[in-house]
Amino acid sequence: MIRVVLPFHLRTLARVDGEVQLEVGSPITLGSVLDALEARYPVLRGTIRDHVTLRRRPFIRFFACEEDLSHDPPDATLPDVVTTGTEPFLIVGAMAGG
Within a domain: residue 40? Predict the structure, then answer.
């Protein structure tokens, strides 16, 4: 079971409270977690990744084990502590401005 923490605006859109738990088949990669998340919550399609290119949207970041995984390729495997459910996979809405 993979634990995913969504930012407030995506939790509101998906109508969930707290973190989400997902069943993801092996290998557990960044892309497979996002695929499972969008399959379970279709309303999130296009909010985290572009519909066509599946590239991460600007101002969305991915973290696990205090590491920024935002620029990792979709087939990058997630750390073992994330795949075992010990640590969550974080999707964060980044901020910009001055």
Answer: yes
